[in-house]
Amino acid sequence: MRIDIITVLPELLESPFNHSIMKRAKAKGLLEVHLHNLRDHTPYKQGQVDDYQFGGGAGMVMMPEPLAILIELLQKERRYDEIIFMTPDGKLYDQKTSNTLSLKENVIIICGHYKGIDDRIRQHFVTMEISIGDYVLSGGELAAAVVVDSVGRLIPGVLNDETSALFDSFQDGMLAPPVYTRPADFRGWKVPEILISGDPKKVDAWRHEESLKRTAERRPGLLNDDVQE
What's 178's domain CATH number? Predict the structure, then answer.
């Protein structure tokens, strides 16, 4: 999978993709992440990529021309399955979207700044708009890092345990159950007996029940959504 990220602050994204699971994914040749500094593709002096908004109002807007130039340059090299814009008014990101994106081959992610990007880019280039939550960040870089991390770990071969991602929270519409490790008795706080019973069927049933309980207590809306579907 290849992900091209358009940003005015590529240095913000260098660290997240050079450590841990994302680093292993790149080393294995399973994931390519390419950072593109938008300022390198603007026809305007001094790397200008933003200007005042028509109609007045506070805040600058990212200009359409630099974005169009870079997007079309990338499109000449390969076909992209999605061109994603990270924006607070996009679709709220969830595990289903992450699963869907992990099946794509080539994706562009645009990181917004200031008051956003000229809407003509959204109308003519962007195919998907994503928000990672109902709040505003200084730019789309951190949000893009969240998307890349959540998608990259789903690519077969990235995780050491192939089944690990399948049991993450939200994969089955519920939160993950409690987890425990050694020692079985820590300060008198004991691991549930069923987990050390050696009976896989009982363990699976316990985990399912605990997932339901935890989801009902903490995120009941997930269960309601599942019922509606």
Answer: 1.10.1270.20
